[in-house]
Amino acid sequence: MKQISYIFIGTLLCALSTTLLAMPNQIADGGILGLSLLLYYAFEFSPGIITFVSFILLLGISFKYLPKHIVYKTMINVPLLSLFIYLTEDLGQPIKDPLVAAIFAGLVMGIGFGLIIQAGSSIGGTSIIGRILYEKFEFSIIRTTFILDSFIVLMGIFVIGPLYTIYTIIALFIGKVASDYILGGFDAKKAVNIISPRSLDISKQITKVMGSAATVFNGTGGYMEKDQKIIYVVVRSQRLLFLKKLIRQIDPDAFVVVHNVKDVSGGTFFATAAEDHIAQHVESNEIEQEATTDKHNGH
C-alpha cells in the first residue's frame, strides 16, 4: 500500500510539474516527456496523448527484448502519468519569471520522480530504449540514456530557443538534486576520520560523552611509515562542532577529515533518543573534566 501511494503521489507531482509549471512557461525536459513537450510547443500536440502513444510503442518492443518484470513496473506509471497530464494540461498559467518556473518545475518533478523510484517503479522513456540496446547490442544503458536525453534537450534550441533550453537544463539539475534527497534522505550526517597519537582516548570520549560508536582501526603513515590508530565515526550534522571541540581538547594537533553522507543504516552509530538527551546535559562539563584528568595522568 505504501509503494502504491508513492507511485500515485509521485506520478501526480510529475504531471503537475509538467502541466502547471513547464507547459505554460515553455520549459522542456529530457526523455519521452521532453519530446512530447517539444511537439506541443511546435505543433500543439497533446503531451498526454504523445506520452501514452510513445509508451505503447515502446511497450510493444520491450516485451520482445526485456525481462517481463521490468516491463510490468512501467505499465501502471506511464498510463497514469499520461492520464494526469491529459486531465490537467489546460490548467496552467504563465509565470512572469520563467526562471522561477524552471526552478519549481525541477523541484516538483524531482520530488515526484524520487517517490516513484523509491517505490521501485519508473516512468519508462529513454531508459527503456537504453535497456533494449543493451540487451541487443550490449550498449551502456547509462551512456545511451544520457545521449538520448541530451539530444532531446538540445533539440529544444530549435523549438523554444537557447534561453529556454538553458532554463530546461537548470530545471533538470534541480530535479536531480531533489530526487537524490528523496532517495538518500534529508537527515544528512557526517563521517569523520581522526588520526591522532591519542586516538584511543578520543574514541573513549566519543563513546562516553556523545553516545556514538566509534570504530578504531590500524593505519600506517606513508611518509613516516609509523603505525597509528585511526578513528571512524558517524555523527549527526548538528553534533559535528561539538565533536571537533572534544577532539581539540584532547589533542589539538589531531588530523581530522570530514565527509558528507546522506544515509546511514544498521550498526550502533547513534545513541537512542534517551541516551542522546542525557549526553547533551553532561557533555559540556564532562569533556573538560576528562581531558584535565587525562593530562594529569600523563595519557
How are the SSEs placed, and which strands pair?
Elements: H1 2-22, H2 31-43, H3 47-65, H4 68-88, H5 98-118, H6 126-137, H7 141-155, H8 161-184, E1 189-195, H9 199-210, E2 214-220, E3 227-236, H10 240-250, E4 255-261, H11 273-297
Antiparallel strand pairs: 1-3, 1-4, 2-3
Characterization of the model:
This protein has 299 residues and is of the alpha+beta class. It folds into two domains: 2-184, no CATH class; 189-297, Alpha-Beta Plaits (2-Layer Sandwich). The protein is 65% helix and 10% strand. The protein contains eleven helices and four strands; from the N terminus they run H-H-H-H-H-H-H-H-E-H-E-E-H-E-H. A four-stranded antiparallel sheet has the order 2-3-1-4, with helices on one face. A hairpin with a 6-residue loop joins strand 2 (214-220) and strand 3 (227-236). The N and C termini lie far apart (57 Å). The relative contact order is 0.11.
The parts where pLDDT drops under 50 for at least 5 residues are: 271-279
Shape: elongated
Give the end-to-end Cα distance, rounded to a whole number of Å.
57 Å
Largest sheet: 4 strands, antiparallel
Biggest sheet, spatial arrangement of strands: 2-3-1-4
On the 0 to 100 scale, the average pLDDT is 82
Q: Could you give the count of β-strands?
A: 4
Helix content: 55-70%
Helix and strand succession? HHHHHHHHEHEEHEH
The share of residues in extended strands comes to 5-15%
Summing up helix and strand content along with how strands pair, one would put the structural category as alpha+beta
Query: What is the radius of gyration computed over CA atoms, rounded to a whole number of angstroms?
Result: 26 Å
Number of domains: 2
Number of helices: 11
Protein name: DUF2179 domain-containing protein
Organism: Virgibacillus massiliensis
Membrane topology: Multi-pass membrane protein
Keywords: Cell membrane, Membrane, Transmembrane, Transmembrane helix
